[in-house]
Specification:
heterodimer, A: 105 residues, alpha+beta, 3-stranded mixed β-sheet, B: 401 residues, 5-stranded parallel β-sheet, binds flavin-adenine dinucleotide, binds FE2/S2 (inorganic) cluster
């Protein structure tokens, strides 16, 4: 089964194993990984599921909606910023490590 | 010290979390009559309904353990004795129990209003409020061909959109002459109507107020759903409730979210609170629930202060994203930014010279700028004339020149 590793700002990390089709946002909520809020329930409308993905990992392109929302993140948007609700385990990646931002709200 | 929170929805769960974030180390008891792990409501009428995913949990099960929050599911509030600071609960079997509190937070949300029905058991008309409702509707929708939706508020529109997207014949009955009569400008409402028509929803306007399920005889359907707002004050299912708890279409609270009874607060959908201009509002949105949850927790830990946050809301209908910041009370003028024909625009609504509300359709960045703007002094510089200037954007208005 796919897995996601969340690296926190303090250097600690948490790895969770998830069903296919689970987003990075949903997996964090289900598994009590603090640092992702997911206020809009995964609609690309709140930017509180912001994560940084590692350089060089192939992921689907940022859509227009996602791009516009990424302009609204609380922590700085970087080149590798993504919305956690838009990336699904099994569909977009099998194993992925993401860095959590300093804050979401 | 023990804080008891009744209702583990968006408001109650946030209140429990913020109590711990703010250093509260007493007991927290979080109760809900629903037996499910607390979940998010918005997906129930959107992609959650369409996809059949499990309800999205508000927090994972271990969250409650980790923070030492005693989560009691399947427990319904039946009465309050404010003098003794005791509440009465009933479990699913009707077994009664009591629990004492030092502070009590009422976060019981709203309950969907239904049409009258001679025999509630025989009711064939559905509402959409809980995960159970959504599961039933999903099943029924799979087999239905003709769907009738009563009510043109957000839930009615969202449900109609999902049903139409699934290829059903959908008729939406609206009392008024347009959709979202109370909650959005005519500009936005008309755009959405056209958008949903294109998705296959048929609209019937000016339908006489339906009170009874029998009034639906003229509208035969395989599946009928009503989205006609919420009950006035659903705190107590039966018992007399609490003597002295002031209610008026919701539980009345002061600016710090205190009810009329000592040690009792109310937050979220159930609370009717005075806004910055002293007008009482009851706001049904995730933002309002979570911010009031945070606010009440801080009040309990650090002392009361006035609640004053810019409200915001979102809705998704057949792929169109609507976001609203602010409250449109008293709005009498508007300026449209962007191009409705292209499906991307914002409606700036003014009460006189004052910007009070911004509705954004497929313009999330406008929405985020509007929220910041409405919370800042900069909003004062955005008059109808200024907004109509060529080159005006909400983002540029945020940065003082
Ligand atoms: C289908 C649907 C779609 C929505 N979509 C959006 C949206 O897109 N955007 C948005 O901003 N808002 C949306 N909302 C509104 C939003 O979900 C509510 O404003 C929010 O849930 C309010 O939070 P709350 O905690 O006050 O109440 P709730 O989330 O309703 O939680 C109240 C809880 O109290 C429990 N309870 C009630 N009575 C008792 C009792 N006597 N004893 C014990 N427990 C009790 C209930 O079981 C419930 O779990 C939607 C609502 C619905 C129903
Ligand atoms: S959960 Fe809201 S943008 Fe991802």
């Amino acid at each position: 089964m796919p897995s996601i590793t969340y690296r926190r700002v303090d250097g600690t990390s948490a790895t969770v194993v998830v069903d296919e089709g689970t987003s990075i946002m949903r997996a964090a909520l289900q598994n009590d990984v603090a640092g992702i809020v997911g206020e809009c329930g995964g609609q690309a409308m709140c930017a509180t599921c912001h994560v940084y993905v590692p350089e060089g990992v192939e992921l689907p392109e940022v859509s227009d909606d996602e791009d516009e929302m990424l302009e609204c993140t609380t922590s700085d948007r970087l080149d590798n910023s993504r919305l956690g609700c838009q990336l699904l385990a099994g569909r977009d990646f099998d194993e992925l490590t993401v860095d959590l931002p300093e804050s979401q709200v | 010290m023990r804080v008891v929170i009744v209702g583990a929805g968006h408001a109650g769960v946030q209140a429990a979390e913020t109590l711990r974030d703010e250093g509260f180390d007493g007991e927290i008891v979080l109760l809900d009559r629903d037996a499910r792990l607390p979940y998010q409501r918005p997906p129930l009428s959107k992609d959650g309904l369409a996809s059949g995913d499990e309800p999205l949990p508000l927090r994972g099960a271990v969250f409650y353990e980790r923070l030492g929050i005693e989560l009691r599911l399947g427990a319904e509030l039946r009465g309050i004795d404010p003098g003794a600071r005791v509440i009465e609960l009933a479990d699913a079997q009707g077994e009664r129990s009591h629990i004492t509190y030092d502070e009590l937070v009422l976060a019981v949300g709203a309950r969907a209003r239904r049409l009258r029905c001679g025999d509630a058991q025989a009711s064939r008309v559905h509402v959409l409020r809980t995960a159970d409702d959504a599961e039933i509707l999903r099943d029924r929708l799979a087999d239905a061909e003709r769907v009738v939706v009563v009510g043109s508020g957000f839930i009615g529109l969202e449900f109609a959109a999902v049903a139409a997207t699934k290829g059903k014949r959908v008729t939406l009955l609206s009392r008024g002459s347009r959709v979202l009569g109370r909650s959005a400008s005519a500009t936005t409402a008309d755009w959405l109507t056209a958008h949903l028509r294109a998705a296959g929803v048929e609209f019937v306007f000016g339908v006489e107020a339906l009170a009874d399920e029998r009034d639906l005889a003229d509208w035969p359907a395989d599946l009928t759903v009503v989205g006609i707002g919420v009950d006035d004050c659903p705190v107590f299912a039966d018992a007399a409730g609490a003597a002295g708890l002031a209610t008026d279409r919701g539980v009345i609270v002061d600016a710090s979210l205190r009810t009329s009874l000592p040690g009792i607060w109310a937050i979220g959908d159930i609370a009717r609170f005075p806004d910055a201009r002293g007008e009482f509002q009851r706001i049904e949105s995730v933002q309002n629930a979570t911010e009031q949850g945070r606010h009440v927790a801080r009040a309990i830990v650090h002392g009361a202060s006035d609640y004053d946050e810019v409200p915001w809301f979102w809705s998704i209908q057949a792929g169109a994203k609507l976001q609203i910041a602010g409250l449109a009370d008293g709005a009498d003028a508007e300026v449209v930014l962007g191009d409705p024909a292209a499906g991307k625009f914002s409606v700036l609504r003014f009460a006189g010279e004052r910007l009070v509300c911004v509705e954004s359709v497929n313009k999330p960045a406008d929405h985020v700028a509007a929220r910041k703007l409405l919370a800042s002094a900069g909003a004062a510089s955005v008059t109808p004339a200024a907004a109509a200037e060529p080159g005006f954007t909400l983002k540029s208005a945020l940065v003082p020149a």
